[in-house]
Amino acid sequence: MSNQKHLTSDTLTFTEPVRLHSNELEQLISAIAKDAEVRRKSGSEARPFYAMELIKKSRLGALRLPVELGGSGASIRDLFYVVIRLAEADPDVAHSLRFHYYQVEEFLQSPAGKERDKWLKKVAEGDLIGNAYTELSSNNVGNSVYETTLTPDGDGYRLNGTKYFSTGTLYADWVLVMASTPDGSTVSALIPTDREGVIIEDDWDGIGQRLTGSGTTRLENVFVYKDEVTFIDENKTPFNSFLQLILHAVIAGILRNVVTDAAALVHRRKRTFSFAAADKPTDDPLLQQVIGQLSSSAFAAEAIVLTAADALDATVDSVVDGNLDFDLSHEASLRAAQAKVIVDELALRASTLLFEVGGASATRQSENLDRHWRNIRTIASHNPTVYKARAIGNYVVNNTKLPIREVYF
Prior knowledge:
Layout: H1 23-41, H2 49-58, H3 76-89, H4 91-96, H5 98-109, H6 114-124, E1 129-132, E2 149-153, E3 156-163, E4 174-180, E5 186-192, E6 198-201, E7 216-225, E8 229-231, H7 242-268, H8 285-316, H9 326-353, H10 370-380, H11 385-398
Parallel strand pairs: 1-4
Antiparallel strand pairs: 2-3, 3-7, 4-5, 5-8, 6-7
């Protein structure tokens, strides 16, 4: 058992990275859930800075690092289980870590070297990484040509551009920026979020996942050192199911919370309808059936996500010198796409079915039960299901591989 200690009920102190199935992890998740509930009941939209600070202190961002490198040695399946638990406590927090975990995975699968070791050390110390990836331009999503530019300037470069939907960057220590050079090369720059010229605007106005810090990032003549730039290898195995699947881990976590809220709603009801099947709502077989349906949907969503995560584990186990096995990578992409098609439908239906166990009072804004549908709808909109279903069908019928170089932001 870990020797982590806790000073008070409100302050958690961590002497080592939090581990899977530990009391410390349970206490961390409980603290995040309590913080989310307090903020929600206050009626404000205060950001989860406290929760993100706890995550840094606990070094939860280092879950996937081997123990000898300062991490917890978790598998991808383990990681996705933790994301589900985090999303149950606070889906904004879980979603905000999406790019961080993806970038850590990129580091882990890269060839060993000084640069890789530098970044893994920062992750082991608790640093978090955000993104400045998406642009609102005429280029299709997934196109590797960016309007954001990286131009030579003396011993380094200058970075200029505007990025949108920078999920998690508001809470991050570092930001990875995608850009194009004057000669058309695609590059990434990993820089501190507090560097001069990096402007992070908390202006995300979506109907759901409102506190993920998914705002605009402006880059105004930002100086970038040469060792902060990576030229992207366009020939690297391109399938990328990690970013998609982590969204559905968040949805699976939300569904856990839907079940909890449904049961609590039934227990809070003091009366029922004259034509109800029982005098007490808790004894009503119809309400029990609805909650049984919700519980089954939550179980199915989680099982689907974790099974797809197994395919990702097999893929990363195949890495040689930074290159993935093409067939295993495609299999992981296929499983993530199949997960999306089913989990989206299950979750959207469940978040509406929740209201069947309450009367009209369940629709009060003070109950805030509509947040589940809004959050799920927002997450599911990242990658339209119809495109995924068609690509899966084309593969099944014609053996046509799924599209490559997909980007999930």
